[in-house]
Design a protein that fits this description.
InterPro entries (chain B): TPC11 (IPR021773)
Family (chain A): Belongs to the TRAPP small subunits family. Sedlin subfamily.
Shape of chain B: elongated
Structural class of chain A: alpha+beta
Helix content of chain A: 25-40%
CATH topology of chain A: Beta-Lactamase
Protein name (chain B): Trafficking protein particle complex subunit 11 domain-containing protein
Protein name (chain A): Trafficking protein particle complex subunit 2-like protein
Radius of gyration of chain A: 14 Å
Number of helices of chain B: 22
Number of strands of chain B: 54
Radius of gyration of chain B: 67 Å
InterPro entries (chain A): Longin-like_dom_sf (IPR011012), Sedlin (IPR006722), TRAPPC2L (IPR044760)
Helix content of chain B: 25-40%
Largest interface: A-B, 28 and 27 residues
Oligomer: heterodimer
Distance between the termini of chain B: 137 Å
Distance between the termini of chain A: 17 Å
Amino acid sequence: MIVCVAVVGHQNNPLYIQSFTEADDALKLHHIVHCSLDVVDERVNNPKKTGPLLNETFLGLLYPIENFKVYGYLTNTKVKFILVTTDLDVKDADVRNFFRRFHAAYVDAVSNPFHVPGKKITSRTFAERVSTIVKSFGLSSAV
Amino acid sequence: MEEYPEELRTPPVTLAAMVGCADLHPLISTHFLSAQPPINTLALPHLSKIYLFERKPKDSNAEVPPLPPTVVGGILKKDWLLKHRTKVPAVLGALFRAEHVFGDPAQWNNVCSDLDSIKTVIRGRNIKLAVVIIHTGAEEITEDKMIALRKRADVDAKYIVGVTTRLPAIQRLVEIKFVSEQLNFKICTLLLHSGKVTESVAWFRQHKNAYKRLVGTPEAIFLHWEWMSRQYLVFGELLETSSKTAQIFPPITLGSASKLLSEWEFHPAYYYQLAAHYLSEKRSALELVISTTETSSDTDTVDSVVPSTYVGQFARLLELGDNVDMMALTDEEYMRYAVSEGRRFRDSLEIIALLKKAYESFNSGNIQRMAALCGFQMGKEYFSEGDTDNAKQIFDSIAILYRKEGLQRDTGPAGPASLIQRETVHKEVFDLVTENSALETNEQLSNLKITEDKSLQLQVDLASPLSLVMIALVAFHEQTMKPGSLTSISVSLLSNLPHTVEIDQLEIQFNQPSCNFFVSNAQKPQSVGVTDNQQRRVETSTSLTLEPNKWLKLTYDITSDQSGKLECLSVIAKIGPHFRICCKAESPASLDNLPVWALDDCIQSVPIKDNILVLSGQKTIQVEEPEPQVDVRLGAFGPALVGEIFLVPVTVISKGHDVYSGELKINLVDVRGGGLFSPRENEPHALDSHHVQLLGISGPEGEEDSHLDSDKIKQVQQSFGLISVPFLKDGDSWSCKLEIKWHRPKPIMLYVSLGYTPNNESNSQMVHVHKNLQIEGQNAIELNHHYLMPFRRDPLILSKNKQASESDLSQSLPLNQKTLLIVSTKNCTELPIRLKSISIETEGDVERTCSNLHGNEEFSSPVLVAPGREFKKVFSMSSDNISKLVLGNLCLTWRRDFGVEEQSASTAATWPWVVTKQKLPDMDVELPPLIVNLECPPYAILGDPFTYYIRILNQTPLLQEIKYTLADAQSFVLSGYHNDTIYVLPKSEHILSYKLVPLASGLQQLPRFSMTSVRYSAAYQPSTSSNSVFVFPSKPHFKNAASTNFRVESVANE
């Protein structure tokens, strides 16, 4: 189950962050998202280590923490997508698929002429679409 | 980590045993010890000792006698690994001599039976067997014997696994976890020792995942969290020490076999952070357990619980006399024991320590956000511990990052709060400082409570972040004020807090404490006691409520008796009995610089209505000196005249003030700024350079000694004077006169200032009166002089003639002739002047060269010269046998005329005469070769002929050829030559005579005579003035005496 997704701008400023849990742990999830930026930075700043991942947008598992796993995705414009999930056994393909759809939704949202680049995404349509993508996570491979 | 036994922490140490050939054992064990890594040896001197390795007959017999009920079998005994270092060897070396093996069959049988017995012993122990043949080289080793030997020594492998189900549920889980913990630790240690970091991390992860879900029963869940925390901590420490010692950095091989490992799992800090997380889980779970279970009084059972011989098992120690027995625990007993153990530790400190380790580790690796999260959690721990200082410090340091990355809205305490949150927080703070009763019961905040001995005063200025709370603008309505008079002061207060602030009392403080005043809130009377300020001014305002972003403007009258600067220093707002906000007062003129202004666009209105005050309003006002009630009058009349001692009367008249320790300062200043004296005034020769000089100060009129006592004149310099004024009562007056002398005509400004104190108190203020007067300095008299020959006698002076064209500055006088000196004095002033005398005085030693000087006498009575008029005096002299005429100085004695006072002898005698001197230039004297004398009657009568003689005197010893001309004149008919050339004999006179008949009456020009001396080529013409005669229409009738008078007058009128 996805508990949190986030879009972070190229200056590490949060553009969109949404948690999908009943519990009151939004702050904790925000912290986890924020900390994951360290991992993304590390990956970006040390491309030698990442090797074949140099040109790949999907960053894979960033780090496991407590009961969560954090996955990352980096666009060419240095916008980061972060996914926090509680599932222990996650298929890579599912995550990739999720990020691809999430990215598409983001591109559509920022293509809105009324959106100011670098500002928070306030579009309700985007939120609904993200929520749909999150709900269908894991199901897509079955379909 | 140190709590684990040594055999778990350290790399494995091999234990080898030897049997047989005891003489070789020391040699072998020394060699093994020196090996890398060292190998311990266990030397058995004889084969019979081999039973030491024999397994205890625990599992060899199925009918195990039932264990005593006090002892429960476990999984691992405590010496499970230790025995492999000291008791049970990994390998047993059986040493046989070669001759025994390859010798006679009896010996071979012996070897075989030995091997068999060894094998039976070591089979259960999984001890490897090494057969060593001691070979001296003489015997032959046969292959078949070796094969047989190998067959005999063959060993099977054996593994053991065991699970116990005897313990109650909780303790069983605890035991399993303890055992797995130790095994995991050992495995990880071994992997890390061999440099297999990735495998070690993967192993740990597997270990952690396997046990993560085994939380156990809810009441014992804290044991699980504690265990989890310990796993992370220990592994983190292991990782840290191994990376320190071995400098192995994790080889990141992502996407391959260890694709699920992230590089984060190689950071020890990651494990510390999680350890802290699980420890805090444990704390909350433990707190829950403690709160639900009643506190147990059964401390005996708890005290006597000790670890039993099996790993992860606990038992109760029973002392029955000398015997010590172990009793198994029920789960309830065990829980009590665990809870009481858990209580003994302060988990917060442990958590903080863990987080600090993680924080520092992340920070050193420049992993900011992780570090910030650790810091954030650490700050929370500090805060819940009540250590607000540390908490704030940490929050502040990490808030920078959160602000920078725009996370403030999401991260709560780190960033600025929203307006509603701010309002809540501020309200709480104000409730706290106003000691609102609602909060007094709150124990958490009791240490923040403000009491009498912990009163709080905030210092707020514009630079401080607290300027949001309150800023104060103060403006006086005027720039200057008279002492004692009233002016208004506006105090404007603004609070940018999101809620209203009610002030109980305002105190406005000035640099003159006597001006301080209070403004109390009418709605909260007597809420703030003003006990010690009874004499102070207290104003009451209907409301002292600060609306958010709205100016509160208060205007009050203010007065000050003390001259000088009056500055508003601060405005202190008192809220509640022990809380004060001290705002530094600011001027509205400095509004532009207010950071608050720039930040907030929510100024509703400028606080002060008067626009000028907004721009120029200042928090300071100049309090002037009290109005002097003493008049200083400078009574000088008219311009000053150069040379005279000009008196300026100064009168000090008291009109209401007594004058104590009065002092007059006098200053002379050049109006045109040119300076009145040369810079080096102290040099004696420079005295002359003072164009205007203050000579002295004379005392009041009518005093016996007109000059003041020397002690009263404190100082008189060329342009500066200081006089002390005696004590004057109200109504008295005092006067003195300043004596000023002008050397050059120059206007000056005279400044007189009187400083005094109106009363005799030491601290009273000086009052100053300033007066000034511009005085013109004028030249009184213009002196002129010229020389004159006798009437109608004109000598031909060659030098004069020569220079006539160039200049006539250096006049020459004829030798041996009578000469007149005419001195004219012109009054240049606008005042009448009295002349006492005009005389010519010799200058020093220089001798006067002229003889027969006449007219050097005083006038019988002083002559009055009206303004603009001239007065002339005639001196006559003869220049006999001299070559140069030196006369000396012209001395003029004069003074200004005092009109009516002049008549009284007393004043006339008092006034000093001024002597003005002017040097008369020296004159050359030379012998004229020719002198022309025109002779003509003093007057003529119309139609009456008269004779006009022209005498030409040759004074030279030479014959002089003269060409002359006599021009016709309109008014005369003449007879004789118009032109001619004549010769004048040496030292003789030639006379030309003409008969003239006047044709017109009045002053008429005689026919003009001109001549040329051929010898000197010098043309000559008598002066025009001597060439006219008055023609009467008929013969006049007057006395002889009058005719001389007429002559004098005509000269004077020239």
